[in-house]
């Protein structure tokens, strides 16, 4: 076990998988950086968040491909190379840039296997940073995983800590289906113990982060550390919660949610995305349709408001759900409100 | 340079919220030109040098090498040597750093604050409380086996001799830690695993019926029912369904909430471990009622009305000061006395019972007590009490008079030594000056902890209380 | 093309304004008060000003993530911009957009844009409106060398040609697409590519205001005259990183220093106008002083500007909902 940042845990996973399997290739804008620059440093960036550093130096330009700013073509590269037998890990820098390349994602990679009679394997990993909290404003801060979770054929992975980030990245690269891998910007520097070497986290397996008996709290990505704060605080008062980190939204471990709900009867869902058609809505819907007899109080959704992500510090601090918001929601379900 | 210039930890790029000072290129007192490297700062991505934006003299270094501080922290001060040290110090102490953190605001934090009473520490189950056969007990003693950790296979889970033997041999019941570790590796849903750990069920070898053959909560619950370790609670009802005849249908069991749980725990422990005894006294109330009417009629329009309970609080306070042996905390090891009476008043609220504490009751005026008790009760009902409101009572007053109760016995609120239970007023005939007349009477029952309070002390306390109430002028003086 | 002294004075002031605005932000940004991304335009002033000096009030421009220069050149209020960059309630975007999303529709400024290549199709749409109005107005998009590789730009070019729109593509090559050299990322060359769509290209020295002004004058006149889209290709450099805080490991150590010493657009225009005897150095110094004071004031008021509240966050998502 080493203590690593999530950035370095992801980097380690990429190094290990490229070492293990020569069909793994990496592509995207500035994944190395510096090509054509005047300094002659051909690995000047290593990804703008430093996740792909050292790869080009070690594995060369054929396997670590700096691309022009052409998001549609980047995802196309991944799709085509995957159909032709490679295991591409493509980067879109910011999840918002899915907007530029959406056709390649939801009309193409997601549907190949189904449309092509089950013959196609599409082992693409599409990495992107997401999330508010750094004042990157409306076009660089969105948490768009609900949008892609609704597309059949995509697996959606959203780690909340360095160990999961490594284990799920390795799993994603070995997975034969397209995986959209969301990395929360504000978690890149989060540190945690990461198992050395082989470490795989299977998809569709939620993690029980805290154990309790009064309330089921479901969270993902940056909302997990926030929920931990709220849950630990309430535990001191005798209100204890099951805290479930979904880890993947497709496949979705709805059994874990329903089972916990059957024991607690109260549900709080925390989701940084906008409230409409969110993961919070989905979980609340599952509770209503499959866990109705367990519910003792209305489900509480803790989400961002239904607005774009605002720029100003003060506004973004209001926008992002906080540990205090989560605590308040837990108190509300306890009161049956 | 005629002014003082702050050097703050820079923000380099979107992600940076803190940085580590790694190397100061200049020392305090050094003078340098614009563009000179002042200090190296490291983030988890890069190391970079902070260059001077203008030339000058480095007067103070505020963050030593190796320290990590948030963006915007004052790390050094540049100033002309002509500026004296005192001015530099003032500048440093007045400096307000930028808050460049990425944390969301807690603005929408709940208005309601903590109010559940702190849970008393659960004492470990002593071995003599475990149900076990005499032979099992003897075997346990001989083998050094802790009976509390042995799962009983006898009737009512009574521990049998064979159970002890098996446990001594490292037998069937692994320790909770071992079980947890073993269960961790099994393909099971996280909730199934949690349930198994709690009920002591090994997951290994169990057949999973969940998605991808994962062991589900249902699987483990079924196993727990088979093993007699658990029974399934009835589902939550959706309104009453009453059959025309036949037995009453059971409503769904409502599990205890966090607050209720702590009440259950505290009261059970109190009733089971404290040797309670009860002493009841009847107290005539007419004089107090008259006095109360007079006070309230004389009060200003807006002044809080003084209730009977407020008089009782005051009377208890004075009686406690007169009998400090009742105004104590009791633990297993001894008794702590207090120099003033802080009285907890029991308030019934929707979710249960809460006991905010009124301080120094003996030495406060009735109107003050009235205002305070009203405030505490209101905040209790609105869940606005703070932890401080609930801490440190030395005695409890519980008044159910408003419900028409005549008399009742209350359970002591540990570590206090006594609680007074007051019933409602009633009219009773009495002989007064050779004739029969009617007086208003209440019954007050003191529950006392016999470990600290003896019968005579309890009786003396009640006698004082009775005198104070029946001749109430002392309560207003 | 002949320009009046007033026009040249204004152009010089605009360039100085952009320069000082950006240089000041470079100093203020590390202090932590400014949040988020800041992409600076220093070094490319001649391009924005050379183009915008040819525009009329009824024309449109659309910008990029590196938008401060285009906004200022188009006449956006420097104070309103500074307040926006500081996230203030009285900024041009009420603090909701920030540096990357400054816009002023009243000035025909359709916005800086956080999505590389996001603006060009929008500008083609504005050109449709210009054509429909038949008032001789044009729509101008600024496109960096990086964005020139986005499919959206090719689609926009083709669409503008097919519909014969009054659309001017300004291609600004500052040498770097984020952290990668333009020479690596661009296949073929920008001029031939653009001509391949049938769009005539006027080339200009992006460090020289007069060169850009003249090239843009002809290109814009072509579009105004109803002859279809045109393009300007101007090459310069950016003095700072892709964003503030970029360590610029991809650049040779002295690259920017050399550009500043030998090519600088502000030095160039000063030399030309004082050399030609249009203005004295003192005339220009007084403009510089006035601009510096304006920037000082803007930063001063922005630092203490009103903080936006929840009402601002929750409004303007819809006109009506």
From TrEMBL, chain A:
UniProt feature coiled coil, ranges: none
Keywords: Oxidoreductase
SMART domains reported for this sequence: Transket_pyr (SM00861)
A Gene Ontology molecular function term of the record: oxidoreductase activity
InterPro entries (alphabetical): THDP-binding, Transketo_C/PFOR_II, Transketolase-like_Pyr-bd, Transketolase_C
Keyword Oxidoreductase: yes
Protein's recorded name: Acetoin:2,6-dichlorophenolindophenol oxidoreductase subunit beta
EC number from the UniProt entry: 1.1.1.-
Location of the Transketolase-like pyrimidine-binding domain: 4-190
Taxonomic lineage from the root: Bacteria, Pseudomonadati, Pseudomonadota, Alphaproteobacteria, Rhodobacterales
EC top class named in words: oxidoreductase
NCBIfam families, per the entry: PRK09212.1
TrEMBL record, chain B:
Enzyme class, spelled out: transferase
Any single GO CC term annotated in Swiss-Prot or TrEMBL for this entry: pyruvate dehydrogenase complex
Region of interest (Disordered), residue spans: 101-129
The keyword tRNA-binding belongs to this UniProt entry's keyword annotation: no
Ranges of residues in domain Lipoyl-binding: 4-79
Domain Peripheral subunit-binding (PSBD): residue ranges: 131-168, 187-224
Keywords: Acyltransferase, Lipoyl, Pyruvate, Transferase
Protein name, as recorded: Dihydrolipoamide acetyltransferase component of pyruvate dehydrogenase complex
Automatic annotation (TrEMBL), chain C:
GO molecular function terms noted in the UniProt entry: pyruvate dehydrogenase (acetyl-transferring) activity
EC number: 1.1.1.-
Name this protein carries in UniProt: Acetoin:2,6-dichlorophenolindophenol oxidoreductase subunit alpha
Xref: InterPro entries: DH_E1, PDH_E1_Alpha_Subunit, THDP-binding
Classification lineage: Bacteria, Pseudomonadati, Pseudomonadota, Alphaproteobacteria, Rhodobacterales
EC class name: oxidoreductase
Dehydrogenase E1 component domain span: 13-308
Keywords: Oxidoreductase, Thiamine pyrophosphate
Gene name, Swiss-Prot/TrEMBL: acoA_2
BP term (GO), one: pyruvate decarboxylation to acetyl-CoA
Function: The pyruvate dehydrogenase complex catalyzes the overall conversion of pyruvate to acetyl-CoA and CO(2). It contains multiple copies of three enzymatic components: pyruvate dehydrogenase (E1), dihydrolipoamide acetyltransferase (E2) and lipoamide dehydrogenase (E3).
Catalytic reactions of this protein: N(6)-[(R)-lipoyl]-L-lysyl-[protein] + pyruvate + H(+) = N(6)-[(R)-S(8)-acetyldihydrolipoyl]-L-lysyl-[protein] + CO2
Keyword Oxidoreductase: yes
Cofactor needs: thiamine diphosphate
CDD domains: TPP_E1_PDC_ADC_BCADC (cd02000)
